[in-house]
Amino acid sequence: MQAPHKEHLYKLLVIGDLGVGKTSIIKRYVHQNFSSHYRATIGVDFALKVLHWDPETVVRLQLWDIAGQERFGNMTRVYYREAMGAFVVFDVTRPATFEAVTKWKSDLDSKLTLPNGKPVSAVLLANKCDQGKDVLMNNGLKMDQFCKEHGFVGWFETSAK
Ligand SMILES: Nc1nc2c(ncn2[C@@H]2O[C@H](COP(=O)(O)OP(=O)(O)OP(=O)(O)O)[C@@H](O)[C@H]2O)c(=O)[nH]1
Question: Is the ipTM, as predicted for this complex, more than 0.90?
Answer without folding.
Answer: yes
